Amino acid sequence: MKKWNLKSKLFAIIGAISIALSVFIFAQTVNKNLRTNDLWGHEYGGDAYTGIQNAAASTGRNVAYLADYICYGFSSVLLVAGLVLFVVAIPSKEENAEEE
Q1: Which residues contact residue 23 at a Cβ distance below 8 angstroms, ignoring those fewer than 6 apart?
Q2: Which of 3-7, 10-14, 77-81 has the lowest mean pLDDT?
Q3: DSSP class of 40
Q4: Chain-wide mean pLDDT for the chain?
Q5: Distance from C-alpha of 51 to C-alpha of 44, rounded to nearest angstrom
Q6: Contacting residues for 76 by C-beta, under 8 A, at least 6 apart
Q7: What spatial distance separates the first Cα and last Cα of the chain, rounded to whole Å?
Q8: Do the Cβ atoms of 75 and 20 come closer than 8 Å?
Q9: What is d(CA 42, CA 16) in angstroms, rounded to the nearest whole number?
C-alpha cells in the first residue's frame, strides 16, 4: 500500500486549492456593456464631447476583453499547476521502498 507522507499530503492540498482557484477565476465574467452613444454601438459625429465618449467606450471594451484574456490565461496556468502538484503528490513505489 502506498504511504502518504507529509510532503505528499501538502502537495495534494495545494493542488486542490490551485484547481479550485482555477475554476473560480474561469467562472468570472467581465461587464462589456460599454456602448457608444447610439443603441447599436455605432459611432457618430458631433461635438468634442461625443468623440471623447466614443473613445472612452472603445477603451473600456478593449480593457474588458483584456481582462477576459488574462482570466483565461491565469486560470489555465493554475489548472496545469494544480494537476502537476497532484501528480507529484502521488507517492511512488521507490519512495515507499526507501522508507521501509
Answers
A1: 75, 79
A2: 3-7
A3: T
A4: 78
A5: 8
A6: 22
A7: 12
A8: no
A9: 46
